[in-house]
Amino acid sequence: MSDKFRALLIEKTGDTQSVSERELSRSELMDGDVTVLVSHSTVNYKDGLALSGRSPVVRRFPMIPGIDLAGTVESSSHPRFHAGDKVLLNGFGLGETHYGGYSQVARVRGEWLVKLPQAFTPAQAMAIGTAGYTAMLSLLALEDAGIRPQMGPVLVTGATGGVGSVAVALLAASGFEVHAVTGKAKEEGYLRGLGAQVILPREELSGPPRPLAKERWAAAIDSVGSSTLANVLASIRYGGAVAACGLAQGMDLPTSVAPFILRGISLHGIESVHMAMARRELAWKRLAEDLDRAKLDAMTRNIGLGDVVTAGNEILAGQVRGRVVVQLAA
């Protein structure tokens, strides 16, 4: 067993951030009770923000970025995990305050880990990643709000992105009529292949919002925020619900109380980083049961560690369709 491994490292001098691939040793890892041989990670929108320095995702330097990982336990003093176990990790400060997934070896806390569902390989788990796990948390929130397929169509914004792609596939698998919003007209075939029945142009919902608009959808999963989310809220049917899980357009929300007090709709914020373990495990159980593997494969491409920074820039520029898996095993 070599003490050395490859990883990406973010460093900062003054206001200047740099990212480079390095050879590190196990002695440089942070504290934890489980050491994982990481085989795969992924690139989420949040990873793009961290890699670019456009948003203060990283809160200590130097930092190994990557908010997701999957691999095999090398050693453990945690009672739930043993050498040879297949595991995955989403969030809990990974790549923000604790060395993350763009590394061939990670040392983490066992209480953060989820045992890899038998239905998935590590690569498939990272094709899902935080984006797909967030999509399932969003669907669970809508179900908890009482949303059912017979109530009407469900809208997905940012539909060709990571969260949106998985959300479209999951909603379709659950029997919902899915309406997908995208700024990429050429991707209509891709979205219909995932299960979308109606494709809407981004411009239809990204303009200045009105307090109320025509009632169109029973519910929505929104990864865009800002004016798009405001327009979605204005168009949700009486008693409907929206799961908000992203900010691709912006953090602001220029809306009014009208949709809430005149139509009784509910807005559910989806937080994935510190989600309770029971809810995490439920989300991954449902992903194993509901997500079509062929559709997952159709939305996924694979890259190496050296391509991560480029993929991060592409995802921020809206140039990534679906999911990106990072292969780390030699």
Name the CATH superfamily classification of the largest domain: Medium-chain alcohol dehydrogenases, catalytic domain
Low-confidence stretches: none
- Any idea of the CATH topology of the largest domain? Quinone Oxidoreductase, Chain A, domain 1
Number of DSSP-assigned strands: 15
Task: Give the overall shape, derived from the CA principal axes.
Answer: globular
Helix content: 25-40%
Query: What is the strand content?
Result: 25-35%
Distance between the termini: 13 Å
Q: Quick one: biggest sheet? A: 7 strands, mixed
Q: Output mean pLDDT.
A: 96
- Number of helices, where a helix is a run of at least 4 consecutive DSSP H or I residues: 10
CATH class of the largest domain: Alpha Beta
Structure description:
By secondary structure, the chain is α/β, with parallel strands linked by helices. It has two domains: 4-116 and 299-327, Alpha-Beta Complex (Quinone Oxidoreductase, Chain A, domain 1), CATH 3.90.180; 130-269, Rossmann fold (3-Layer(aba) Sandwich), CATH 3.40.50.720. The protein is built from ten helices and 15 strands. It has helices at 45-52, 122-144, 162-173, 188-194, 203-206, 226-234, 258-262, 277-290, 293-298, 308-316, and strands at residues 4-13, 16-25, 34-42, 68-76, 86-90, 105-108, 114-115, 154-156, 178-182, 198-201, 217-222, 236-244, 266-269, 300-304, 323-327. The strands form three sheets. Strands 3, 4, 5, 6, 7, 14 and 15 form a seven-stranded mixed sheet that branches. A six-stranded parallel sheet has the order 10-9-8-11-12-13, with helices on both faces. A two-stranded antiparallel ribbon has the order 1-2. β14 (300-304), α10 and β15 form a beta-alpha-beta unit. It is globular, with a radius of gyration of 20 Å. The protein starts with a strand and ends with a strand.
